[in-house]
Design a protein that fits this description.
By secondary structure, the chain is of the alpha/beta class. It contains 21 helices and nine strands. Helices cover 46% and strands 6% of the residues. Strand 5 (97-101), helix 4 (106-118) and strand 6 (123-126) form a beta-alpha-beta unit. The mean pLDDT is 95. It binds flavin-adenine dinucleotide and iron/sulfur cluster (SF4).
């Protein structure tokens, strides 16, 4: 072969221009790598799903008549490093050219570029043809300001792609229907059973054990639930349109433990398409177009607020966090605006805590490699922010545990949106809350050891005093933030005794944090 074309594990885009023509001079290369399996401690389902989806993709390319070299993790020739393997392959095949699709992760982009520089190799770069916006989207969309508002960004992308638009205006006369959304789940609301697959990945599971790849979390390797090929990914997308979309926005922020439908409490009306999207098995426009089409054929049962909410996540938030990532890496990874340094509490690894909200959110993450946005943001993220966990430790956890976690999307969400470590670049105020929010949006508190209505004393909900501890210890940082002003007024009005009691309660909880 004259040319090697590298396909990374999250570049499973079957519709890429590369695959439109065939050539015996082109060798496609895919590799299972130790460096990818252990750059952080991953959930076992995540490693299995990536490797299985990669193997399926490679088989599909081969059946379509392309030449492909697939290097398995346990192949004796595998040096477990992307660039060492590439160098060996160049020598072995005598290929003169190497072509790559631009990695989405800074880590891999940097690795390939420095390797090419050091070895005098001229890589020809291609776009992944996946995102709607480029790496430089912030520069393009905000030429005159560094006040990057997601809403502004979203409107531009939506207009450009004419999604839910009519005559240059948003359908329904408004861009955003958030106010209609975000309701608590009523007890009698039917929740659809999640569509799960039963992919047998025992062979890969055995290989991981033999190769000593350390992972976390649980799996039944005979029944991996995640989509691992394009057909399954498309099935999940159709299933979402039919069963999730009608209530997507309305119950987007709700949390429950109740098995209204057996096995549905963890997925609710969420699409669970993030893995299929982030591996590029599905294109965001493809997902959005089928949802919009389904909505337009079912307007009597699906309100505009539902489809708008979904579209905003996929073409707004998802593209926006990527733009933030590429604008601010690599410095972004070191942001720690609030100087938080605490170690991650032990129950993040085993769900063993009396706090029901934390227990359920972590338990399901260990069981399914999945938690929905509000569990990530307002339960585990909120608790870490209130208690001052180090963003480094937290990033590793989020990057490892979730099926959809790839740094370009995990990092801005964790460090930025959830931990305010970027000093408000993404979130205009910190996402913190006491038990009030949990009570309002979910059903966890009713089954908890702690009392959501108590701030101090025996069984007082830790979130309550920790909330005020945060407010107090970051006074300098937030007192003049206009979105936080009200909370400081409330705090300042409290008597010294009340303030002291709250601080003492929180200090006690912080000292015994692993026992909560
Ligand atoms: P749905 O609720 O069905 O939403 C539809 C789609 O919208 C998602 O599949 C996703 O592609 C997109 N989306 C929604 N919210 C966001 C967002 N904030 N940023 C980017 N895309 C979004 N998402 C990841 O894909 N990978 C991560 O590693 C990741 N880490 C996160 C860490 C924290 C602390 C937080 C608060 C959020 C994180 N998110 C991450 C965003 C979001 O929680 C997940 O995309 C979502 O829960 C995936 O489930 P779903 O497919 O059922 O989403
Ligand atoms: Fe969580 Fe507190 Fe509610 Fe318990 S009482 S579920 S700890 S918010």
């Amino acid at each position: 072969a004259k040319t090697i074309r590298l396909i990374l594990g999250d570049q499973l885009n079957a519709r890429h221009r590369w695959f439109k023509t065939k050539s015996s001079e082109t060798l496609y290369v895919m590799m299972e790598l130790g460096q990818e399996a252990d750059y952080v401690l991953h959930h076992r389902q995540k490693v299995l799903a990536f490797f299985k989806a990669m193997r399926n993709f490679s088989n599909a390319l081969e059946s379509a008549g392309h030449r492909i070299f697939y290097l398995r993790l346990d192949d004796a020739r595998n040096q477990q490093s992307l660039t060492k393997n590439l160098l060996w392959l160049l020598e072995e095949t005598g290929a003169k050219h190497i072509e790559c699709q631009q990695p989405d992760e800074y880590r891999l982009d940097h690795q390939l570029k420095s390797w090419a520089g050091a070895n005098n190799i001229d890589i020809k770069w291609f776009d992944t043809e996946h995102f709607l916006t480029g790496r430089n989207a912030l520069k393009d969309y905000f030429p005159d300001t560094d006040n990057y508002l997601m809403e502004t960004f979203y409107r531009k992308v939506r207009s450009e792609h004419e999604i839910l638009m009519e005559g240059g205006k948003p359908i329904g006369g408004r861009w955003n229907f958030d106010k209609e959304n975000q309701k608590k789940l009523p007890k009698n609301q039917h929740v659809p059973e999640p569509l799960v697959f039963a992919n047998d990945v025992s062979d890969i599971d055995n290989m991981l054990s033999k190769q000593n790849i350390k992972t976390m979390g649980n799996v039944n390797p005979k029944q991996l639930i995640w989509p691992v090929n394009r057909k399954q990914a498309q099935q999940l997308s159709s299933y979402f349109c039919e069963f999730g979309l009608p209530n997507f926005g309305r119950y987007q922020d709700t949390m429950t433990t109740d098995n209204i439908t057996p096995g549905a409490h963890w997925s609710l009306f969420h699409s669970r398409l993030s893995f299929a999207l982030n591996t590029k098995m599905l294109h965001p426009l493809e997902v959005v177009h089928s949802a919009v089409e389904h909505w337009s054929n079912n307007k009597d049962t699906i309100s505009l607020a539902q489809i708008e909410g979904f579209v905003r996540q996929v073409i707004g938030w998802r593209e926006f966090v990527r733009a933030i990532y590429w604008k601010f890496m690599p410095e972004y990874k070191n942001n720690n605006a609030l100087n938080h340094t605490r170690a991650l509490p032990s129950y993040y690894w085993n769900a063993e805590t009396k706090m029901a909200c934390m227990h359920h959110s972590i338990r399901q993450s260990l069981d399914y490699a999945y938690a929905h946005h509000i569990q990530r943001l307002m339960v585990t993220g909120n608790f870490a922010l209130l208690t001052g966990v180090s963003p480094d430790a937290l990033d590793d956890w989020y990057l490892g545990i979730y099926i959809d976690a790839i740094e370009w999307v995990e990092l801005p969400n964790t460090r930025g949106m959830s931990q305010y470590a970027d000093n408000g670049l993404i979130a205009t105020k910190p996402y913190i809350s006491s038990a009030n929010y949990m009570k309002k949006m979910g059903h966890y508190c009713s089954q908890c050891h702690y009392d959501p209505n108590k701030k101090t004393g025996d069984k007082a909900c830790p979130f309550n005093s920790l909330y005020w501890h945060f407010i107090n210890r970051h006074k300098e940082h937030f007192e003049n933030n206009h979105r936080m002003g009200m909370m400081y007024q409330v705090w300042n009005k409290k008597s010294d005794d009340e303030q002291n009691a709250l601080i003492q309660q929180a200090e006690h909880y912080l000292k015994t944090i692993n026992e909560l």
